[in-house]
Amino acid sequence: MGHERSRIARMPIPTAGRSHFAEVFHWSRESRITGRRALIGVLGMAVPVAVGVWLGRPALGYVIGLGTMLLAGEQGDRGTGKHGSVLMSLVPVVLAIAVALGLSSLPFADVLMVALAMLAATLVNYSRPFAVAGIRFIVFLVLNLGIVGAHGPNGRGAALLFGVGAAWRVLLRTVARFTSRKAEAGDHVPSPATREPTPSQRRAHMKRVLRTLPGWQYPLRLAFGLAVACLMRDAWPAHHFDWMVLSIVLLTPRALEHFPVHITQRAVGTLAGVVVAGIIMACAPGHLAIAVLVCLFGAAAPLVRPGNYAAYCVLATPLILLAMDAGTGIAPTMLADRLVATLAGCAIVLGANGLMDCVLRWALQTE
């Protein structure tokens, strides 16, 4: 990775730019769309959205569908993950919802949210399963605080419905794993055993890493970005800038990179997704047509994410907008605010990356 970065750094700027944007629109060959995953995606979205439309509260169905879509992981849906069971993927989500409900009524909720996110971010130094769980907790904590705020008096109920959507996804994955277990057993070839570090070794490694500044680079960048985004959101309360705070946790990379492809993909994908959402709201003949499109987009988004993150953002953005607008309708000003918030989030993350790089260089020179 370091050799690759240095090679790109030596490229002429036009060549490096072309290489960057080629990666932005590149479709990964590792992506696999199977009939089972497609069926899980369709059922995961269709059932909650249909229930919401039937009850006359489509926005609540979209919230449940959002929980279903966001818990759709490539590794978890295949059921071949090495680390933990599909049920364990629900634990950080439930914990995040519970913490969000507790923080939402406190006067210094943002300060506590940043502190908890920073603490959870240190888990990336323990092990890969803990890193995945920690980052998942951070994302769902920030998202559910936004949902609680957006839905006003019904905010706590909306957050609980989000958890129902996550549980629905886990149930579908568990059923799919159970029904396919016999078929997989016949073709299963045992993999050679690998030696895993013991818990005491992992704790010793984590303590050793956290005694160094590089061991804190991800938590510090994340906390800095969240703090700046919260201040900017509160400085312009008339705008819908909760999206900026969410963008920080989605865009801040664990490894320090100056200009990650992930950031450009999210900016491009969100821009296109906002345009698509505007077209849907302007041209769709009614709630039923919007619900059908939401089902299609929500089912397709997890399928395309392993292939290209920008394509995922295009499909996921309309659903997130609909789930967070509290059923009041998406006005053009809201779409513009979401786009500005995304671009501002990208700038904050890039600024935090550059600042941390300067701090690490300075620390290295002073040693």
Descriptive labels:
16 helices, globular, 367 residues, 74% helix, mainly alpha, disordered N terminus
Task: Walk me through this protein's architecture.
The protein has 367 residues and is an all-alpha fold. It has helices at 2-9, 13-24, 35-54, 58-70, 74-78, 91-103, 109-121, 128-150, 155-187, 199-210, 217-235, 242-251, 261-283, 287-304, 309-324, 332-366. Helix 3 (35-54) runs antiparallel to helix 14, helix 11 (217-235) runs antiparallel to helix 12 (242-251) and helix 13 (261-283) crosses helix 15 (309-324). The protein is globular. Mean pLDDT is 81; it is low at 1-11 and 74-84.
Topology (SSEs and partners):
Blueprint: H1 2-9, H2 13-24, H3 35-54, H4 58-70, H5 74-78, H6 91-103, H7 109-121, H8 128-150, H9 155-187, H10 199-210, H11 217-235, H12 242-251, H13 261-283, H14 287-304, H15 309-324, H16 332-366
Quick overview:
Helices cover 74% and strands 0% of the residues. With 367 residues, the protein is mainly α.
